[in-house]
Each structure stands twice: as structure tokens, then as C-alpha cells.
Amino acid sequence: MFNRSRLKKKKKKDFVQNIIDSGEYGGSRVLLWGRVLQMVSEAKNLVPYSGPNKMRDCFCTINLDQEEVFRTQVVEKSLSPFFGEEFYFEIPRTFQCLSFYIYDKSVLQRDLRIGKVAIKKEDLCKYTSKETWFLLQPVDSNSEVQGKVHLELKLNELITDNGSVCQQLVECHGLPLVNGQNCDPYATVSLMGPSRNDQKKTKVKKKTITFNIVFYNCLVVFRYLLQPRENGNKSSKTDDLGSLRLNVCYTEDYVLPSEYYASLRNLLLKSPDVQPVSASAAYILGEVCRDKYDAVLPLVRLLLHHQKIVPFVTAVAELDLKDTQEVNTIFRGNTLATRCLDEMMKIVGKHYLKVTLKPVLDEICESPKPCEIDPIKLKEGDNVEVHKENLRYYVDKVFSTIVQSSISCPTLMCDVFYSLRHLAAKRFPNDPHVQYSAVSSFVFLRFFAVAVVSPHTFHLRPHHPDAQTSRTLTLISKTIQTLGSWGSLSKSKLVSILTFLRLCIYNVISLYSEMYKRAQGRTRIGKKNFKKRWFCLTSRELTYHKQREPIYNIPIKNILTVEKLEESAFNRKNMFQVIYGEKPLYIQANNCVEASEWIEALCRVSRCNQKRLSVYHPSAFLNGNWLCCKATTENTKGCTPCTAGVPADIQIEIDGDRETERIYSLFAINMPKLQKMEEACGSIAVYQGPQKELDDYSNFTIEDSVATFQTLQQIIAIVEKLNEPHEKYRKKRSSSAKYGSE
């Protein structure tokens, strides 16, 4: 079974995919994915300090074995801290335990571990979807032992009085990380016999979690998990450390070969075209899931993978607007449309947030200035005027950063905003500002404001900020929210916001200049020459014109990198190159300032592109070789690192089959609701059977009972058909498993 997973947080982070084990089904691979949804609720009765101040500043970490993957905020001055934080993550590797450590935060010294809860992988199912109080266990060096050892000891057939020599291979793996770093392991082997006892110790292997060692005089072959050493030390009383309340949900998905999901995948991908959209499979998924987030996550990723997210969000947003009566409540609820858009912005806009907000958030968190302005929360000696000035400085800096970032806004987000603007203007034709307020409610209220108040959630900061910084971020976030609601804005700020929104919504011209380009084809005499053309850069494409109509266009999403070109390439100054899917486009600006302006603008507008290059050729390919590195093949990989490098975290890696498997699981779990919804459609008077009381199906949105009924029949038939191979594989897996096998 493969276990390839990425790690995310619910309120997300990608890890390298790892192969765990493999299984076969019908000659094809079956993939196993594990994922965890957990609520770290609260702790109680923690051990107090021995001094007069008995309170502690506590936080909790979530660990796969001993590797920390998340941590909660710090709760100050409490022995019964309430955390109330929910985490969602996918398992990126094998593990033995899911562990939770309670720490006492220390300013000057190392944080003190109060106790831990460790749940073995095989026991996670016992606690799934149950709130459980766990007694904290003591933490010491012995309790932290983890890993596996494989010993192979060979025995000769003849044993002499002096003993015979044979090899023993010691192979260790899965050793824990210590403070995020590889450990320095060694092994000891003891030989105990009637005549003598002997012990050997290996050399220390620096910075590793796996190693091989050779011994001699060996007897047997076995494999086992490393266990704590019995040293006779008395452990702490577990009932003295306190308790931790958790709600853990661990699930595994068995992903079959791609062909098994064709019918369900095709039905889901047709959703944007179904009329009405409430009769589509994707919309029905949101209707039957108790928590819409369960449906939204795999649905958005699947639609993104197949370039269907924009038409689907447009369709469900239009349905939302039918029930919206007031302009000031537009897109304010937690509907399928708003949840899908929120999730899409988190995935697609992750790098956009990083290049926009991270620098200013780093400044706020690393060099915080006091910004408290609430009279009740002010401390003695605080100067409220200084605090106001500090807050004004931070707000202006965040505001300026946001309104100047339109050129970095991902094209996919711009496309969705354009659709929302059109729908809002159509729904409220008499309101000239609704086309902007509809977009600002998402951009400011549901995107930037949320990222500012919780930067760790969007991976803009490694951990929760401290209490004072968190309060500052909250005050800044509240100000950002007023930008989305158009409340009490100055004229200058309103103009800046409108300009920003227009640049995001429309295909607005960013740059327009007359420059020279090198011909990409050959002239009649066989040489490529330079021609003067008008160049136009928008948020969606780069075009050049001879007259009014464009001669050629390059979609921004296709640009791989933009770099300067060495003067020696064509004996011309102020040249740069735009590298995209075909041959490079060589452009000569009129001066160095213009060249720099175009390079910067092109880099900014394409910085969130996928598959950007990490290396390039700083010169040209002429007369059969690259002038820079002398390589003789035109498609030779670049020889110089790109100046901007590759934004490694902007790649959107989505496994469509895995997301479809999740959706199948949700449909299978909610089969009774599907059947009830099918019955509700059949009970509507104009379709079939007597009409039932409204309460029997009032929780479902059924605009067209015939179309909805037909889709439900298709979903149920597909799920029942997929149940067969899943059940067959589970039986095969359980019957073939042997105790002690790999």
C-alpha cells in the first residue's frame, strides 16, 4: 500500500510524498491515504508551580511520533487551559504514535514539558469522533524511545569448542527526530551464555535515522520495535500531572486504480453545466454532508485539478444571490459558494499572501510595538497616543501593501472575482458599487483579514504569536475588515481600494510601450532582425502589436521566467528575455529604466505561475551553440540560476483519484440521506407519488425534482458499484495479513 500524503491545517502545509507499502488490485496499485481531524479542547488539573505564583503559561503540540507538526496558542496563567483549536492534516509517512505534549512556556529557559498523551496508530480507531479525557503521562528519556531494529544472525552448521564465526547485520530505521534534527544513534548487543557474557557497542552514527552495522558470533534472525529500557527508575504518578481532552478522527482512504472512478469523476465534472446547479452531483454532495467543509475540501481540489472551479463557483454563487435581498448581506453567509471560494483562495492564493503580507507580518511579530487602545486593557504608564500612532503605522503599511499587490493576484482569483462582479451587478442593477463590494467582501473580509489575524494558519508565521502581538494583529485585522464593508473610509483610501479592485476584476493594462523585438521566424535572406512593436502587458497576457490588433500574445500563466539578456548576445543594450512554452522572446527597451520596469512588472505578474524555471541561459543560441555555456543543443538546461528563483511552495499538487475517492466515501457514509433526498423528489406532487409534509425534505434544496432525482439515481448506482471492489479489496487485505509480516 502506498501512503502518499501532504500535511495541511484546517483553518494547510504540503510535505514531500512518501511511499509506505504497496498492495495490488487487479494488477494495479491500490493507494492507502491516512488523515486526521482533531480538536485539542482543553487540559485540567495541571501540576502547579511550587512557589507563590502557581499558574502556568501552557500550550500543546501535536506530534507524529516525536516530530512536531502543529502547536496551539499559549494560554496564560491557567492550570486548566482551554485551547479549542481544530487541526486537519494528512499523514505523510509511517508512524507509531500520534502524540500530544503539554508545555509550560518559558521566556528565558527551554520550555518545560509537563506531560504527554500518546495514542498508538492501531488504537486511533477506538477514539474516533469521541471526546475523551486522557491522563497525562510523564515524559523522560526512556518514554521517548522509538524506531525499529532488524537483526539478521547467521548460524554455522558446525559448532566447535572455540565457536564459529558468522555475520550479524543490524539495520535500524524510523528513529525519532530530536528537536527537528536527526539523532546520533548507536547500538549495543549483549551475548549471554552459560560460560561467559559479552557486550559490544557500535560507533555513534552522526545525524541519521537509519544505519547498518556488522557484528560477529551471531545466532538468530528477528525484527522488533524498540522499547524503553527497564532501568528500575520510578516513574512519576500519572494522576498528578493532569488531563487533556481530545476529539480525534482518524480515517484511511483506499484509492483504487483510476478507471474505477471514471463514472463518478465525469458526473462531478459535469456539475457546472447542470441546470439548475442544485441538481448537480457536486451541489448534492454539499447538501448531504453534515459539515460542508468535509465536502468542500475534496470537491474544490478536484474541480481545480480539472479546471472547473470557476464555472462551478459562478453557478452556485448565482444561486446564492437569488436568496439575497439586501446589498449589505451579499456573500456573508457560510454557503457552499462562499466555502468553496474560501477554500479556493487558500489553495490558489497561498503564495500571493506570502509575497504580499509576510514581510510586514514578520516586522510586526519580530519587532512588536504596543498598540493597545482599549482603555480597559491599558496598563499603568501606557501612552495611548503613542499606541495609536504605532497602530496607525502598522495599518497604513498593511493597507499600502495590499492595494499595491493587484499585479500579483493569481489569474484564477481574478477570473472568479470578474464573475462575482457580473453576477452582483445583474442582481442589483441600481447599485453602482455592488460590483466592487461583492468582491471586497471576499478579498478583505475572508482573505486578507483572516490571514492577518491568524498568520500561522496560512503558514506566514511558524507558530501562534504571543498575546500582545496577537492583540495587535486583531486590531489591524478589524481595520482591514472595514475596507471590505466600505465603512467610514477616507476619500483617498476609497480611491485606492477601487483602483485595486478594478485591477483585480478587469483585464487592466499595466504597461504599454513601444520597444524592439527580435524576429522569432526567419526573414527572406535567412537572418533574424529586430522590429519595432507596441507591447502591452495586462494581468492576463503579454501582447505586441503592429497597429491596433495584436500580432502575437503570450498568456501570463505560460511565462516560465523573465531575465536580462547579456549585451554580447546581439551587441545591443537594455535587452531582456521572456521565456515561455516556445522559444524565448527577446525584447530591447529604449533605456535601462524602461527595461528594469518591464522586467519587474513581468516578474510580479507571473511570480505565482506553476513550473517556473530555476535556471536559464543569460545569452542567446547562435550558430549552433549557446554563447554563455557553449552547449550545442538548443534545448539544453539553463546554466545560470534565475534571479528570482523558484517559489517552491506555489505548486498545486492534486491527485484527482484521491479526491474522487474521498467524495465516494462521503456519498457512501451519507447513503441514507441520499435515499431520503431521492424519496423527497419522488414525493413532490408534479413528479410521482403523493406529496409529503414539507418537513420531510425542507432541509434539501430541490429546485427541479426531475433533474435532482435523475442525478441521485446516478450517484446511488455509482456508489453501489464502487462498494464492490472496495469490499473485495478489504477482504483480500485482511485475509492476506499475517502477524509479524511486513
How large is the share of residues in beta strands? 15-25%
Rounded to the nearest angstrom, the distance between the terminal CA atoms is 11 Å
Shape: globular
**CATH topology group of the largest domain:** GTPase Activation - p120GAP, domain 1
Give me the number of helical elements: 15
> Care to count the β-strands?
26
Helix content: 25-40%
- Strand order within the widest beta sheet: 19-18-17-16-22-21-20
The CATH H-level homologous superfamily of the largest domain: GTPase Activation - p120gap, domain 1
Protein structure class = alpha+beta
- The first-level CATH class of the largest domain is given as Mainly Alpha
CATH architecture classification name of the largest domain: Orthogonal Bundle
Strand count, sense and barrel status of the largest sheet are: 7 strands, antiparallel
What's the multimeric state? single chain
Low-confidence stretches: 1-29, 155-160, 215-222, 231-236, 645-650, 689-696
How many domains in all? Answer: 5
Mean pLDDT: 80
**Radius of gyration of CA atoms, rounded to a whole number:** 31 Å
